[in-house]
């Protein structure tokens, strides 16, 4: 029962966080698909984190609003980072790109990555203040496993697509 | 002209500043030059008499007065030429203070330089960054839209499964569930492709 309430709380918070996103962009665009992926990863991560760390209702109620807010900020930054990297790729393809243009683009990429890093560090500090030592230990392992599984899942998706082509 | 050079050498000889080679050269010249011989003898005599002289017997008051005047005269001449500067009396009077000050300055400067060069504390978030994983993943998604769609569908299935499992299998070990899920997926999607004969058998 406790678990069900946790899941409902997470989903409710997540849906509330998504309202502004749905109202901004046209559905079906490439950016829309990418945002859906990011949102789905976030939901899956939140669900698995709750279960793996065995978060209490009180912890969920404190942690998830912060996590949700942070996710929105980081998603925006990741979107911008993706755009900058796309630009960088096209600059490399283009022989006429000037050195100062590269510098400018690289500096922006560094800035965005730094912003993301600062947000992750800030969240980690906050999370540490909310978790027990066992939960902190579990969080470290959870992060590793989740990231690994994510990449494995992606590779499986690639293999499936290649098979079907 | 030539003797003028030897006269200088005679002066050096009496002061003991002449090299053996120059000394031999001078002696050779003195053997033939009467004028230089006379000059040498005169200088030698003056030197001997000067050494024999005793210093004047000054009273302590006179010595102090002499030093005072001499100092005043130096200061005055220095002020006129504008060469003397006001010395930093504090540090000159106390060398230990000066040494201490320099040491302190060195320590402060070292701290300032070393402060920024310390390796930054590595946060767990950076070691296990989800965002870095996401960045790699997003690059793959960028390349192929159908991979993105397929991946997204997998995520939706996983979320769905997660919610159903939460409802049905409360209390069961989650690690086992995840492993079962992956094993099932592998069996359904990958093994069939790898070992197609198995299915027929």
Could you please describe the fold and organization of this structure?
The complex is a heterodimer of chains A (165) and B (201). In chain A, 90% of the residues lie in helices and 0% in strands. With 165 residues, chain A is mainly alpha-helical. Chain B is mainly α and 201 residues long. Among the domains of chain B are: 1-54; 91-117; 129-174. In chain B, α1 crosses α2 (20-30). The longest helix of chain B is centred in the C-terminal third of the chain and has 24 residues, at 145-168. Chain B is elongated and about 130 Å long. Chain B starts with a helix and ends with a helix. Classes of the chains: A mainly alpha (165), B mainly alpha (201). The interface between A and B is large, with 47 and 44 residues.
Which short descriptors sum up this protein?
heterodimer, A: 165 residues, mainly alpha, B: mainly alpha, 81% helix
Outline:
The complex is a heterodimer of chains A (165) and B (201). By secondary structure, chain A is an all-alpha fold.
Number of distinct beta strands of chain A: 0
Radius of gyration of chain A: 19 Å
| Beta strand count of chain B | 0
- SSE ordering of chain B: HHHHHHHHHHH
Question: Looking at the chains present, what oligomeric state does this protein adopt?
Answer: heterodimer
Number of domains of chain A: 1
Shape of chain B: elongated
Helix count from the secondary structure assignment of chain B: 11
Number of helices of chain A: 5
Whole-angstrom Rg of chain B: 51 Å
The largest chain-to-chain contact, stated as pair and per-chain residue counts, equals: A-B, 47 and 44 residues
């Amino acid at each position: 029962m406790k678990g069900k309430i946790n899941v409902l709380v997470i989903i409710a918070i997540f849906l509330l966080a998504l309202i502004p996103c749905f109202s901004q962009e046209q559905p079906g665009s490439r950016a829309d698909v990418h945002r859906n992926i990011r949102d789905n990863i976030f939901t899956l991560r939140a669900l698995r984190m709750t279960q793996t760390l065995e978060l209490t209702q009180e912890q969920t109620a404190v942690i998830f609003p912060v996590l949700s807010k942070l996710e929105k900020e980081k998603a925006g930054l990741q979107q911008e980072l993706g755009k900058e990297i796309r630009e960088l790729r096209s600059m490399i393809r283009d022989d006429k790109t000037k050195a100062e243009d590269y510098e400018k683009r690289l500096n922006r990429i560094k800035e965005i990555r730094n912003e993301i890093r600062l947000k992750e560090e800030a969240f980690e500090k906050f999370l540490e203040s909310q978790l027990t030592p066992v939960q902190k230990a579990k969080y470290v392992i959870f992060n590793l496993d989740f990231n690994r599984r994510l990449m494995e899942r992606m590779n499986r998706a690639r293999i499936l697509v290649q098979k079907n082509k | 002209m030539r003797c003028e050079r030897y006269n200088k050498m005679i002066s050096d000889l009496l002061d003991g500043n002449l090299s053996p080679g120059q000394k031999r050269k001078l002696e050779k010249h003195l053997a033939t030059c009467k004028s230089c011989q006379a000059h040498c003898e005169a200088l030698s005599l003056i030197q001997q008499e000067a050494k024999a002289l005793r210093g004047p017997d000054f009273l302590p008051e006179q010595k102090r007065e002499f030093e005072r005047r001499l100092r005043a005269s130096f200061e005055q001449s220095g002020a006129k030429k504008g060469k003397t500067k006001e010395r930093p009396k504090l540090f000159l009077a106390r060398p230990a203070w000066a040494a201490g000050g320099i040491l302190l300055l060195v320590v402060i400067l070292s701290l300032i330089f070393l402060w920024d060069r310390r390796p930054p504390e590595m946060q767990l978030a950076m070691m296990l960054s989800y965002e870095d994983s996401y960045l790699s993943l997003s690059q793959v998604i960028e390349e192929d839209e159908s991979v993105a769609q397929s991946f997204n569908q997998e995520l939706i299935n996983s979320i769905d499964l997660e919610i159903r499992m939460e409802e049905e299998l409360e209390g069961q070990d989650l690690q086992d569930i995840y492993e079962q899920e992956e094993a099932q997926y592998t069996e359904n999607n990958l093994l069939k492709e790898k070992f197609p004969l198995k299915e027929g058998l």
